[in-house]
């Protein structure tokens, strides 16, 4: 076999592998939301509850039950933080759902801090407290023994 034929054959094999990879990518895209739900049902559940909470907050603001001001949005962020922390506790309590909770903890601390910042309008104190909470969470996460 001459070098030109070997080069052609190599190109055909590469094209074949590329086609297989593209087909796998398309199959993965087809799985979409169902596959994500199977891998992380608690995360999808939390997202759904957060969206419901956002809708409830809008409804309460539109009907005048809570004000459409910073304090009204503080209530939304506090509720979101509660939902995020509930997900964290569920992950820690149920072995089947156990995953790293550090990212969720950081988001929960940020949401909680934003709620306090909107309510008290004292960002000079709230902002650094959120950063301290996030730093403590990271240290605790690293210092605790792994299971």
Fold and architecture overview:
- The chain is mostly helical.
- Helices cover 84% and strands 0% of the residues.
- It has 5 helices and no strands.
- The longest helix has 37 residues, at 3-39.
- It starts with a helix and ends with a helix.
Keywords for this structure?
single chain; 147 residues; mainly alpha; 2 domains; 5 helices; 84% helix; elongated
Poorly predicted ranges (pLDDT <50, ≥5 residues)? none
- Helix percent band: over 70%
Q: Outline, from the CA principal axes?
A: elongated
Strand content: under 5%
- Secondary structure tally: strands: 0
The gyration radius over C-alpha positions equals: 24 Å
H/E element sequence: HHHHH
Sheet with most strands: none
- The separation of the N and C termini measures 58 Å
Overall mean confidence score, pLDDT? 79
What count of domains describes the coordinates?
2
DSSP summary: helix tally? 5
**From the helix content, strand content and strand pairing, which structural class follows?**
mainly alpha
Any chance you could write out the topology, listing elements then pairs?
Blueprint: H1 3-39, H2 41-62, H3 70-93, H4 102-120, H5 123-143
């Amino acid at each position: 076999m001459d070098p030109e034929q070997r080069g052609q054959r190599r190109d055909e094999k590469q094209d074949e592998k590329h086609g297989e990879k593209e087909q796998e990518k398309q199959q993965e895209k087809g799985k979409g939301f169902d596959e994500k739900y199977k891998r992380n049902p608690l995360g999808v559940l939390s997202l759904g509850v957060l969206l419901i909470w956002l809708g409830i907050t809008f409804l309460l603001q539109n009907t005048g039950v809570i004000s459409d001001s910073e304090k009204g949005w503080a209530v939304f962020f506090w509720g979101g933080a509660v939902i995020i922390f509930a997900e964290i506790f569920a992950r820690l309590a149920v072995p089947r759902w156990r995953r790293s909770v550090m990212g969720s903890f950081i988001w929960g601390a940020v949401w909680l801090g934003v709620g306090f910042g909107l309510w008290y309008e004292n960002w000079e104190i709230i902002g650094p407290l959120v950063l301290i909470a996030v730093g403590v969470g990271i240290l605790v996460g690293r210092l605790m023994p792994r299971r």
